[in-house]
Amino acid sequence: MPAALRAVVPLLAAVFILIAGNGIISTLVPLRATLEGFSQADIGFIGSCYFGGMLAGTWMAPAIVRRAGHIRAFAAYAALAAVATLALAAAVHPLVWAAMRGVIGFSFAGLYGVIEGWVSSKSDSTNRGRMLAIYNIVHFTGSAAGQQALRFTDPRNFVLFSAAASFLMLSLLPMSLTRAEPPPLPPKGRLEIAGVFRATPIGAVGIALVGWANGAFWSLVPAYVERLSLGAGTVATFMTFVIAGSAIGPYPMGKLSDVSDRRWIIAGIGLATGIVEVLLVASGHPPTWLLYVFGLGLGLTIPVIYPIIVAHTIDRMGSEKAVAISSTLLFLYCIGAIIGPMTASALIARFGDVMLFVHNAAAHGCLVAFVVWRIVRRGPAPRVPLPEEAAGEAPKVP
User: Fold this and answer.
1) Which of 94, 143, 260, 379 has the most C-beta neighbours closer than 10 Å?
2) pLDDT tens string 22-44
3) Environment class of residue 237 by beta-carbon count within 10 Å: exposed (0-12), middle (13-18) or buried (19+)?
4) CA-wise closest residue to 19 among 108, 116, 142, 138
5) Is residue 391 part of a domain?
6) Residue 227 and residue 133 share a domain
7) What percent of the chain has pLDDT over 70?
8) Is 123 within 8 Å of 72 (Cβ atoms)?
9) Looking at the predicted structure, is the pLDDT value of residue 397 above 70?
10) Range of the domain at 209
11) In the 8-state DSSP scheme, what is residue 174?
């Protein structure tokens, strides 16, 4: 097994288990809230609190990791998320759920900072795209696996909350038992917002635009498909095609970005995403089979841009700052993800459901234009292999 991949196997095992638990929570909370008769405003507020907690968590993650270390910080965040998950079942009330979703968002911001920082630190500019792609594949596979738990029991009882909390705690096992050396501690216990803007405007502006589009997509696309009046089964199948594309797309695009200028890959994927969105707008009320094709196309493109922007930013700034950079990018992404659903919802309310994809096509168009402008102004980032002593051997990912 290549050294770079071997260094993150325990982490990837923990990610699969952790995200399986989060996959249960992310679907169970709005479903159970609906069954409990929460208002749409309450459900929307609960969802916003998750991203608000995540925003706060990204701000504090570098300091917490610097103080506790990667493994202990991971354990603390996972335990906190598990306790908050059990509290959801113990007190079924909108305000309690909003607070607990904020705590879970805070915890996962820290977990993502640890995970992405670890993966980025154990890779280099010649394989970072593939390494982050493998992480994303494990992430989406774990999420899809966890959501299948909802098929086996009534969401009104305690079992699913208990299962989700159990997965969160079980994710500690591979991290606690690993003999792999964690990355160096962050040199600074704070975000690198100004540093990212100076080093690579594509990282700062690009990730915010991606959050703007992705926040709107993941929040509103199930409702868009539902209002096509094709049935609940069509919604589920459409999302399955999106997730399938999300598991397939990252690796080949990550591999391509490792052997070429990542900025052109970001622009190309952004352009492809915008084309699919324009086709969805033009199709109006597409037949079911074509809707599934569009879903697969969006899955192949939408989730791929984020990890390549992360890889590009760390290429510019250095892997020794990986945790702070990952947390900074997640912070900027969350700002976009909070704003995106609001702007898209306003357009949908005024002009109709199809404006979701007009909105997102505009966001991806801005991304492509900005990236191409930056390419014209500045050359590509240098490719520097990770020193052998940091990985044990030359880190090559097949």
Assistant:
1) 143
2) 988 887 888 788 788 888 678 77
3) middle
4) 142
5) no
6) no
7) 91
8) no
9) no
10) 193-381
11) H
